[in-house]
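Give me the fold.
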Amino acid sequence: MSRWSKSTVGALALALPVFSYAKPIAFADGTTVMAEYGAGTMKEIQIFFAPQFNYSVGGGHVELDSDESAKSRSITYARLNYLLHRWNLESAQANFFVWGGAGSGTGNTFRGAEFAANAGAQADYETRRVYGSLKIDWQGAADFSHRIDTLQLGIAPYKHNYQGLATWLVLQARDYTGELHRGTEWAALLRLFKGGAWLEAGVSYQGTFQAMTMFNF
């Protein structure tokens, strides 16, 4: 068996009940469904299935509206997510994911649908009291190119376990390229999850509502 097999799978089995949530891969033979809403800026839905613990396949749909101009874009894509490396520590876990995909994009500044590519990466670190992640997601076609960079830092007021309700206070900074948003968008979020269900909601510094829900099963 490979170096991932016996020792690593055993460690994963212990770690996943606590550390398996805001990631494009939840666990082997698992499905992740995610929906995100940012008032006036972004709406996205994704669904992925993981045949093994280190990759998942699926797709999504994202709609983007610019607050700098009248630009809007809509992209539907298929995607492969891959766990490049996971660090299982005594009381923490860190991950590095990459992904790539392709689909079709439309917009109000060009005619018809265009072939669109998608690529990105995510690095995260989590204990039962501290959380941090950095995600870079790029979409591009002949008539547009944009990237969304999201940094999240969170703290839990108490330690959680799989059976209990986990509560996180999260500060988020999000930067948009491609003339989608002016400056960095800051938001304060309350995150709750229990078992495979996750809900995150809050407001940006401009007072706009943001929310994300995720289910792993």
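The chain has one domain: 6-216.
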